[in-house]
Specification:
Layout (H helix, E strand, L loop, with lengths): L5 H23 L11 E3 L2 E3 L4 E3 L4 E3 L4 E5 L8 E7 L14 E5 L4 E3 L5 E4 L6 E4 L13 E2 L4 E11 L4 E13 L9 E9 L2
Antiparallel strand pairs: 1-2, 3-4, 5-6, 5-14, 6-7, 7-8, 9-10, 10-12, 11-12, 12-13, 13-14
């Protein structure tokens, strides 16, 4: 058995420990390229936290009432997650406590004041109504660019088909142009939201 002098032994052990620590630090501090949308740098790669759904290049926080939709036919609403929060069913428009919602997209979050969201319990399928979806826009705070010169506000009306699907009608309304703030243009599109578990 070969005996290593104690000072040399301590020096070798200290050097080995330092090398392992340095390698560990290098792995944990590996940088990411700029992460897109709301992803973050996790172990050197852009991704989502454990409490989020990975949507490819963006993240959605997990929630019992999270629904997702994607469509190339709906300006400003191409892909999003809709969270129905604090659901308080209405008996009629303007009655009782209000529910809240959040509509998240890769690069922004629309949100609505309780006065703009209604949830109705119906025997043939519960219904929702969202008025004045709020988000960034070039004309006013909540305008959606339909083309280079036309901007509209968005209302959405939906009906549940089972517990996990909401069929909605999207109404682009109260439209305006740079020169005509009272434009009467109006368009209707459709989106299907599916519960994400």
């Amino acid at each position: 058995m070969i005996r290593i002098p104690t000072p040399l032994y301590l020096l070798l052990c200290g050097g080995l420990t330092l090398a392992l620590f340095q390698t560990s630090c290098e792995k944990s501090s590996k940088e990411c390229p700029p992460c897109p949308n709301n992803t973050r740098c996790i172990d050197g790669d852009c991704g989502c936290a454990p409490d989020q759904h990975d949507m490819g290049n963006w993240c959605l926080y997990k929630h019992d009432n999270l629904f997702v939709s994607a469509s190339l036919d709906c300006p400003c609403l191409e892909v999003q997650g809709l969270v129905l929060q604090d659901i308080q069913p209405q008996t009629e428009v303007g009655s009782g406590p209000k529910s809240t919602y959040a509509l998240s997209q890769p690069d922004n979050i629309y949100s609505g004041a309780p006065a703009n969201f209604y949830y109705y319990q119906r025997p043939d399928g519960d219904s929702i109504a969202l008025f004045n979806l709020r988000g960034p826009g070039p004309v006013g705070f909540y305008s959606c660019p339909m083309n280079d010169s036309l901007y509209c506000e968005i209302d959405m009306f939906g009906k549940f088909h089972g517990a996990d699907t909401i069929q909605t009608t999207v109404l682009y309304t109260r439209c305006r142009t740079q020169t005509d703030p009272g434009n009467n243009h109006q368009e209707t599109r459709h989106l299907t939201f599916v519960r994400l578990k």
